Structure prediction request, 68 residues.
Amino acid sequence: MTKLDACGLSCPEPVIMISQAMKSGDSEYEIKVDNRVSRENVTRYAEHQGYTVSVTESDREFTLKITK
Prediction:
């Protein structure tokens, strides 16, 4: 599983990070973001790439688990 931390970054940076990570071909990724816009954009991008996304929220941070 590839883990990424995009806290403190605004879009499109988190989407770019997950896009680059997905080039590795892993079937599982985890990315942390700290705003709703990034959560929504990363989720939309991952689902468009054929992945399933589950989100958990803790202390105003969102952890997105992306699986294929």
